[in-house]
Amino acid sequence: MHPFTYTKAADTREALNAGRRGGRYIAGGTTLVDLMRETVEHPGSLVDISALPLREVTATKSGGLRIGALVTMAEAAAHPKVHALYPVVSQALELSASPQLRNMATIGGNIMQRTRCTYFRDVTADCNKREPGSGCAALHGYNRTHAILGTTDGCVATHPSDAAVAFAALEATVHLLGPAGERTVPFADFHLKPGSTPHREQALRPGELITAVEIPPYPRPLKSGYLKVRDRQSYEFALTSAAVALHLLGGVIREAKVAAGGVGTVPWKLPAVERELIGQRPSNALWTKAAERAADGARPLEHNRFKVELLKRAVERQLRVVGGGK
């Protein structure tokens, strides 16, 4: 681990001043500290924001839900409003990491976490995320767990967060605070696809910190759930996952929100699947037809071709679980 300075911010103003000078924000530290130990990351200055007043889950005036950035994953998963209104979020959080990590890791840190790509974490391997212009070892290496959607020749790493998949499906908004003031970013725009700059992963401006994630209101009843497919039952990242939320009225699907994880370079929204569902009546035939669109645009690699079919089956299964049908 490289030397660094440490400051614990007493308030938001102090945190922003330190962030403006290049400090890296840290709260639970469950990702950043690991990367520092492995010398993947070596910030010169850490700014501890754990004392900031960002630990509330509140209903918004419009009927949505706002989750403070410093609410822990465990707290968010167990919160009565999250659990009752958006089971897909609770389930995604409960299927993440271990209980010990969920007790430490925060919502803001969760959506900021970096890829678990082994080549990214191996400082001897070529990785454009870690060292722009060095190449991508995963392209011709062992790439079973890598992405099939949103990839480029510069990067095929998956985004690891389960909660981010649920937030993407629900079209949440990320609230930010920085030297220039407050602003919001749609969740779909917060995570950046690799393009020609795979080292840029979030749409954050210098010195900005996340203050909350806000889920918009949806008509009720809204049924939702999260499915995670992985190599083992606990403490494992997704090979693929599916977040589904459906609003049915009069036996017809009026709202459909679907996203996938474990297969994309960012939490991957599935609008083609959603379009197949809107205005239709639940049925097994519908779920199968809609799920066929889940892998549109996929570019599988040598070792992860199985993910194309696995993604379709995961989406179909979760549509059936959430929506029922005959």
From TrEMBL:
Q: Which residues form the FAD-binding PCMH-type domain?
A: 1-220
> Is Oxidoreductase tagged as a keyword?
yes
Record keywords, A-Z? Oxidoreductase
A single GO molecular-function term is: FAD binding
Which InterPro entries does the entry mention?
Answer: CO_DH_flav_C, CO_DH_flav_C_dom_sf, Diverse_Substr_Oxidored, FAD-bd_PCMH, FAD-bd_PCMH-like_sf, FAD-bd_PCMH_sub1, FAD-bd_PCMH_sub2, Mopterin_DH_FAD-bd
**Listed PANTHER family:** OXIDOREDUCTASE (PTHR42659:SF1), XANTHINE DEHYDROGENASE SUBUNIT C-RELATED (PTHR42659)
Its recorded name reads: FAD-binding molybdopterin dehydrogenase
